[in-house]
Structure formats: C-alpha cells, structure tokens
Amino acid sequence: MIEQLDRQLLLILNSANSPFWDDVMFFVSMKLVWIPLYLAILVYLGREYRPSFPLLVLCLILSVVLADQISNLIKDLIARPRPSHETSIQGLVHTVNGYTGGAFGFVSSHAANSFNVALFSLLLIRRKWYSAFILLWAATVSYSRIYLGVHYPGDIICGAILGILTGWASYSVFRRYENRIFFRRRR
After folding, report:
1. Radius of gyration of the CA atoms of the chain, in A
2. Is the dihedral of CA 86, 90, 95, 97 positive or negative?
C-alpha cells in the first residue's frame, strides 16, 4: 500500500518536467554546487562562534559523516531499488542526462545531508530569513532527486528525518561542550 502510493506520487511529481528544469535540477543536485553555500555558512559561524569554532566545525563534520554513512548503511540493508532501476516502472520515469544513481535509494543521502546542515545551521543562525532560505534550499535539493527519477518521495522524507536527527544530535553535543574552559563563546 505505502510502496504503491510512493510509486504513484513519484510518477506524478517526476512527470512534471521540461528541458529548462532538467538543467536546473541536475545542477542543484550536484554536490560541488553546495560548496559556496557551506563556505558562507562557515564564515558566518566563524565570526559568531569564534572561540568555539573548532568544536563547531568538528560537530558539523561529524554530523555530515553520520548522516551520509547511516544513509548508505540503510540503503545497503533495505536494498530498495531506485525508481530509475525499478523494472516495473522503467520507461515511465523521467531521467536526465542518463543519470540513474546507484542501485539502491532508500534513504536519500542528499536529503539526509541537506536537512542535516540546514537544521544544524539554523539552530545556530537564528534569523527568520535564514531559516526560510536554508529549509527551502534543503527541500529543493531533496525534490531535485525525485525530479531526476532517482528517489521516491518516501526516500526523501526518511532521508530528511535522518538528517534532522543527526543535525539535532550534533547541535546538542556542540551546545553541551561549547562553554567548557577551552571554548568560550563571544557575546
């Protein structure tokens, strides 16, 4: 029942495509595109959390590694084929530039990583405009994976949940230790 709904929702969302959006979504989905945003976030956080910045970076790296590796472990354990590899819907799934991703897609590492960084950073950068922007960015990156035909909506939702959980856990570790003797926050 849930798999059938997931498949139907994928086909609806994936069928709304055009050459323009093919290029946009393919670009958004490339991990190297994220680097300028990540650097801008780090520069801002470096100014705001200067004394505890090394700990902050360590927690952020740990968070990204956890989200990424846990999502890959789940993919290997569940072994659910990506829509682009699912024989029952081949020919119905729109793919871009021949990109089909790896064999398995549950859960989405893109969703886990983007929501991980989004949550971790928005808890530190408490500005409404930033929260709206970073959540929209994470949602766009995640949606691009459905658009490209390499993830079901359920892969995205579960990946986002994983990212939120790892982001929250790493943020909690940072907050717990940031005010220790070696890490004093500038006010």
Report:
1. 18
2. positive
Per residue in 41-88, pLDDT (tens digit) is: 999 999 999 888 999 999 999 999 999 999 999 999 999 999 999 888
Backbone dihedral region of 43: left (phi > 0), alpha (psi from -120 to 50 degrees) or beta?
A: alpha
Can you state the angle between helices 128-147 and 109-124, rounded to 10 degrees?
Answer: 180
- The predicted-structure confidence for 135-187, as pLDDT tens digits, reads as follows 999 999 999 999 999 999 999 999 999 999 999 999 999 999 887 755 454 55
pTM of the complete model beyond 0.85: yes
Assign domain 2-177 one CATH number from 1.10.3470, 1.20.144, 1.20.1070, 1.20.920.
1.20.144
| Domain ranges, ordered by start, for the chain | 2-177
